[in-house]
Specification:
This is phospholipid:diacylglycerol acyltransferase. The chain is α/β, with parallel strands linked by helices and 690 residues long. It has 25 helices and 19 strands. It has a 6-stranded parallel beta sheet with strand order 7-1-8-9-14-19, sandwiched between helices. Strands 12, 13, 15, 16, 17 and 18 form a 6-stranded mixed beta sheet that branches. A hairpin with a 6-residue loop joins strand 10 and strand 11. The protein is globular.
Amino acid sequence: MPLIRRKKASENDNNPTTSNPTPDEKEEEEEDKNNTKKVNAKKAKKAKSKNKWSCVDSCCWFVGCVCTVWWFLLFLYNAMPASFPQYVTEAITGPLPDPPGVKLLKEGLRAKHPVVFVPGIVTGGLELWEGHQCAEGLFRKRLWVARGCGNLTSFLGLMFYRPLCWVEHMSLDNETGLDPPGIRVRAVSGLVAADYFAPGYFVWAVLIANLARIGYEEKSMYMAAYDWRISFQNTEVRDQTLSRIKSNIELMVATNGGNKAVIIPHSMGALYFLHFMKWVEAPAPMGGGGGPDWCARHIKAVMNIGGPFLGVPKAVSGLFSAEARDIAVARSIAPSVLDNDLFGDFGLQTLQHVMKMTRTWDSTMSMIPKGGDTIWGGLDWSPEEGYVPSKRKQRNQGSQNETETMACEAKAVNYGRIISFGKDVVEAHSSEIKRIDFRVMHQGAIKGNNVANNTCQDVWTEYHDMGVGGIKAVAEYKVYTAGDILDLLHFVAPKLMARVSAHFSYGIADDLADPKYKHYKYWSNPLETKLPNAPDMEIFSMYGVGIPTERSYVYRLTPSSDCYIPFQIDTSANGGDEDSCLKGGVFTVEGDETVPVLSAGYMCAKGWRGKTRFNPSGIRTFIREYDHAPPANLLEGRGTQSGAHVDIMGNFALIEDVIKVAAGATGEDLGGDQVYTDIFKWSEKINLPL
């Protein structure tokens, strides 16, 4: 045994690998281990970074999935026989009624008067003609309203993958209200400019298709597309759009046997065409030089659809806090999505960029409420005061189900208070409200203490120049009526108001013979201008009713933050019962979800009815209200009896009225006024000398 142990020991001595390592060898071995750990750690970190899922990834993945599914369904829809979707729908819902064009063709109606469409804000397509490096490869691609799949790809790609680039190109110069240096975005021309907002989402397409049924084609239909972002007069200065509309109407009348044109404006297009009618008769260079009888010679009827003649409160909330009711609800559900960096690494504070962009669009100011407290009411009264929306029954189209519309109690609502800070202010009598006048405080130099810092990056809004004192002063004024709104906007958006003061006006004319009203800034305000001398012309106000529509708001100050918009709709403010008109910080009235009945209907109900100082030639006016009926099921899409602001463009009853007038009928032939609301009663409450 000793011999064996000695032999093994000698073998171990002769084996270098089993000998005790030297200090240098130990150090090398330790270094190798450390290097191995570092390599493994890097690999693990790399693998972990690959697996990290950011907000941008989620957004892109979601948008990609939606687009892929949408395109696939659209492909299947276009690949199947044309009659198959109708067959499936009829198998479930029963036989569908004939479209208005088919029905009226059977009754013998044929195309007669040329038709001109005037789109509203945001429904017309805009395309890129010149841009910065980030928009390379998008020449003549749509930046707004993606009609086809190709345009949808470029539109969504720029908007979601390069959102700051898209905002930069959709914005106008903050000093001039025109093109920024190196950028040219222009309106799309032709019927395709506004037939669809996106693939499958129609705007004018259904009306165009039904007019085509009775013989209309492109030579007798014209889309008066314009850049809806810039002021009305600047569309002529930059693009000569008003001159083009004039020339096209003259050509269409001349080539259609001398038959006068039927004009169909939608939404803000009603204000734009009101401006056009004054421009075309005014002498050059301010006007088109057509003479005082141009409208009488060229226009049979103006059929306004959802026209916001006296403005919309929604425009105030949009400019004040970049909100409306839907945005406020979404903000309350997920505040970090809209208030913080929605796009993560891109640094896009969503609402701040929206506000910065939209405050360069001068056209939005055309829809600020006009007429002040005389029209919209004061601290303790409004035309809708004491009104309880009727609980009239209406059938869901294609079904026997009945629903009650607008079932809210409005007896004690002070609609004249368009903006109130706090629910207690809403409910208090005006004598109990202690207001500190921000205009006086402004003279004391409250503004000027800039609160912006580097954390806002380039998300500058004019609130950053107001200072904490200026922001508090706005809230301490407590309540704002229509008469206060302009002063408020001058305080919070001075650059915007400095530009638009030369283009729009919001008052009531004392004497329309005053030479100052010949200026174009008054032409889109029906309370400061006369209708043309065209006694044979007819004007229609056609709009949906039966949908809660924003009328006034309850606001609150947001938590202090340099980058936040300091004011928000207080979504916690609700009425005391289910029937209250106050929900989520918003008071609602009758309307089409965007334009209150008062704004859409007053001028045709009273302001222009008969011979008045606003209608000296006595142009006949008609009100046509369309009671909203939601679709009975998803297969009916957006429905054929909708009264919603855009969906009404597919309303069969409205389309039938339009086709009849285009084929030669008058307002009396349609049955005169068609009214479901108390618009005449409300109009009588407005004390306006006529």
